[in-house]
Hints:
Layout: H1 24-32, H2 36-56, E1 59-60, E2 70-71, H3 75-82, H4 84-115, H5 122-134, H6 137-148, H7 155-162, H8 170-173, H9 175-200, H10 204-212, H11 217-245, H12 249-254, H13 264-274, H14 278-313
Antiparallel strand pairs: 1-2
Amino acid sequence: MTATTSAPAAAPDHPRTAVRPPSSRLRAWATRAPLLPALIFMIAVTQLPFVATLVISLFDWNALYPDARHFTGLANYGDVLTDPDLRKSVWTTILLTVAVVLASLVIGLALALLLDRRFKGRGVVRTLLIAPFLVVPVAAALLWKHVLYNPEYGLLNGLLHYVGGPQPDWISNTPLLAVELSLVWQWTPFMMLILLAGLQSRDQQQIEAARVDGASDWQIFVHLTLPHLRRYLELGALLGSIYIVQNFDAVFTLTSGGLGTANLPYTVYQSFYQAHENGLASAAGVLVVIGSIIIATFALRVVSSLFREEVGRS
């Protein structure tokens, strides 16, 4: 008996069309397409006004005499750098920023060390300490001006009257210090949060090993905690500087730029809204933006280094 074998089925006449996977470039565009509206909106809101400001800064442009407008090149920038009032405002801005950042970092570090310990009611204390940073800047300045600094019914003079002390006019006698104290009160919680995050990222095993070896709390703080917090201190200083350099609310609300407290943003406001010097104000504004970008560049480098350190640990 012979076995019969069936012949294999004939192949179809038309070949099958292979399905090609989408290219990597197409997948990248498909992934980024939902972000395009936000990117376009951000460019329209931020970059186009800056370009317009940059163009206006190249003109001698007084809003009261629009027909006398003419191109002057970089002359407005020269006026900003050589004008005595503007140079004084630059110095005031530097002094205000350095004082506020340093004081906020020191107080914020002390509060972060306190909150890093376990104690009853720590959550409530943490919430209360964060609260000043959540207050609207103008409201915070009004709070200090009327509730604390007022020479007649302010809280500070009320406490001094209770102990038989003097009744000074805080804003008139110490105007720059008054502005600095209000900004320190508002920005200390920001520094505290950054440094508290740094404290909670320490290697606890290393600290316990140091305690076993007989190291005191001060030695652990100096040789372990501070070196670990160096990046966080730099980050807080840079981010704080970016915001405080551009601060306008406290100066405008507390002193209206008088008594030697006019910083560069307030001087830009005076040049634009009071003197109507659009070109000069735009040039000063461009310089403020350039300075902020320089500081932000260092801040981004510090942030990227922090991320690299965290990735290296994991």
